[in-house]
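Marked as duplicate of an earlier ticket. Keeping the data here for the record.
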Amino acid sequence: MLTNIIHSYIGTIFIFAAFFYQCSVFGDFRDAINKRDLYDLQLKIKKNNCPDLEIMRVEDTRAFKGIKPRIWSGYDYPGNSLLVGKKSIPESWLNFVRNAYEPLNTEQIVRIISNTSEHSEIIEYQKQNVFDVYIDCLYFSIVSIATVGYGDISPTLWYTKLFTALEVIIGSSILVFAIGMLFSNWTIKIGENQIETVAKEPAADKAGSGITDAS
């Protein structure tokens, strides 16, 4: 029984890690499209109607806060193919993509847009980040089921919050069931020992009485 409980616990961790990874993939893609459209709209308004318009930074709509590497590139997270193909973009930005995973500021985003002729160069699948993102999702799954809550990674969308809450409930239920089984077996064992002790007492008393009568 204990083995089944451990298997259930570990299985729950990996199942929800897969859910969180899929949420990250979808969330990064949605975030990249949203930022592309809003930045393009701001630049279009600035160019045609309001030259003095200050470009505002678009807020993240990713699935998790705290997972730095991204599955999809975007204006604030340019992919390697875009950076390598543009000589006017500093090489330090390429290093940021490979190592730092820090988002660009508004000025750098505008430079990226001005050096990009096709939208297909902006949103690209970042295969090199798959392992890093999955490890973060696995870590978050372990922290969630253990109800530790460090806060370094947190869900931001309704469905990631729902999955997180569901994992916490399942993890707590498994733990309560395991503790219940442990105390149940312990109680049963104590009861069996008491019954065995009570059963032996009459036999011992009878044997003692027989010895007394013989003397």
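See parent ticket for discussion. The helical segments are 2-48, 80-84, 91-100, 106-114, 130-145, 158-214.
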